[in-house]
């Protein structure tokens, strides 16, 4: 038993000797001991987590290599895309675009008062805490979960999808915007307050004008995210192109899938470019 | 006031009409909503719908404690969360590793302009597709399950990671390289002491940020069949098994909040000096 | 009329910014307050419109006990007091006229102010205020495109649009060059004489204070050490107020 302990002690001290850097002696005689590099902890931990994850997810490299050929077979069948199919996807595609537009706008508008309530402008410590806490939790809900919940309330279809996007954007914008409010210059706010206005009036008149450009920019950024979100909501039945895509995939009609992906890609690229350009000019 | 000075009257008349832009924007928004009515029909609230607020509240306050604390079987919330975490982790790590070469190939200060443009174009194309789309495709290749989730997240992460990595590379301070050059270092030393330190902490911070995002995506991907807590969650909700759904949601919420907190703290430390 | 009676301001960390201040300022006076930074000038000024609260003592403005005001009564009270700041505190990306109109918001309902529905009479009041400080022609120009002196005059016009009985100025010209400072101080003087508005100004620069104010209050470490006509100040009193000889920094200088 004592032998075992001594053995362990010996190993530990040997290991420490390896990983501890040599103390350096400076020319003026002082001795500096550099700290043990944090990499000695980080790398083993990461490796451990990686190995554990590989086992948890049943990651099989051999299967990947074997089946990757199948991937290219599928991609091959998607080209050339079936352009004749375009008429059938026009409506769902437009619905998808509208869903993202309407949802983003509603979410962005709703976020304003709640962003105010979450910012330092809200003088109630408890109030701030409650609002921020509520939205932190609400933000953890993935957009598809919101979609399913909305479908239970409003039935299947694009309305539920739009509502899901609105709520999702709402929760995200509250955080992004209240952080923005807290960076604003409070000087004009103080000035308007001193003239007898109430805090909301002072906020609207003195702080919002500083922030409108960035607010629109945030909204457009969310729009870019949401056009992608809207595309997948259809998968659970909440409207848009998602349901068509998953159906065509399930039936393995790959040329149709190719067209859907192409149209989706063009739409996303167009919206992103327009949005980038507007955002560039806003700021 | 009875008499207004003519100068003031004059200035009042000259006021610019700012209602123009506001009305224009308002009109666009109205147009969008108007057109939307044709494509997004409102069918009223379903019967179940009116109860849903109560049900959700119920779900969260009376979660199914059996599965919530079931640390043993694969159906228990903790195991599902860990599986989701594993999917997110591997997806992020692999995504980051794959993104690094892509990033170098799109950085204009590393490769010639035309190669960089191609690199950027590829990244942009990869980024346009939502992760779910990749998931649906990969399921055709490797079947449903956590493995597919990892693959999907790896590919989906490239879009963001490669882009941000490339930006970090382009922001490299050449001054440090010059200084090292001047003191006589060879290429490997320059990379080791000049480039890597600048890159590593930024890469790490970005990767951790992507991990946060991937945790949420891992849940979504689960719903389309790529493993993790997503599938059981959506089954529970669709079947109105509110107590089960509540347990799963609580597990998810707590998990995401913890990850957010840890991630923010680590990234702050990375930014300020570690 | 502003009346301080034995006013004490103690901060939570124990620091006493005002240690029993008593003074009376009649309507229409032009008073400058001088003293070192941290001597209590700012606290004194801001106590008047309750931007800072007081710990004890009585502070009455036009007969009203200031510390008794809150909510709606406080806001209505503040309508009658304008405030001008060293850093102007204008809304930079907005036009001059909009900055001045912002002062009218306190009289408007919430809905009106959210929609920025200024009435015609509001606009006329704003324009007349701009005219009084001599920058009417800049009405529709963005505020950050003006010079420092012009911006401060916009701020002054903003307070005028409140139609106040008192204007408080916290080091209003400390960021301006000598020529512009003189112009702005002249504006204050003109408004004080023409409209009988009480002006209480914290002044960083002693020579300006002595030149424009009729009455000077010197404050040191929370206590008033001089309260009298500007003409009654000499080197001795200045040394008492500042606790040291004056430096270049305390003077605006020639123009």
How are the secondary structure elements laid out?
The complex is a heterotrimer of chains A (283), B (274) and C (255).
Chain A: H1 2-19, E1 24-25, E2 31-32, H2 39-56, H3 61-78, H4 86-118, H5 125-139, H6 143-154, H7 158-181, H8 187-194, H9 199-233, H10 242-250, H11 254-282
Antiparallel strand pairs in A: 1-2
Chain B: H1 6-13, H2 19-39, H3 47-61, H4 65-68, H5 77-106, H6 113-128, H7 131-142, H8 146-170, H9 174-182, H10 187-223, H11 230-238, H12 242-271
Chain C: E1 2-10, E2 16-25, E3 30-34, H1 41-48, E4 56-61, E5 64-65, H2 71-79, E6 81-85, H3 96-101, H4 110-114, H5 120-132, H6 148-160, E7 166-170, H7 178-195, E8 198-202, H8 206-212, E9 215-220, E10 223-229, H9 235-242
Parallel strand pairs in C: 3-8, 3-9, 6-7, 7-8
Antiparallel strand pairs in C: 1-2, 1-4, 4-5, 9-10
Helix pairs in contact in C: 5-6, 6-7
Characterize the structure shown:
The complex is a heterotrimer of chains A (283), B (274) and C (255). Chain A has helices at 2-19, 39-56, 61-78, 86-118, 125-139, 143-154, 158-181, 187-194, 199-233, 242-250, 254-282; strands at residues 24-25, 31-32. With 283 residues, chain A is an all-alpha fold. In chain A, strands 1-2 form a two-stranded antiparallel ribbon. The mean pLDDT of chain A is 88. In chain B, helix 3 (47-61) packs across helix 12 and helix 5 packs parallel to helix 8. The mean pLDDT of chain B is 84. Chain C has a domain at 1-75 and 206-245: Rossmann fold. Chain C has nine helices and ten strands. Chains in contact: A-B, A-C, B-C. Chains A and B meet through helix 2, helix 3, helix 4, helix 6 and helix 7 of A and helix 2, helix 3, helix 5, helix 6 and helix 7 of B.
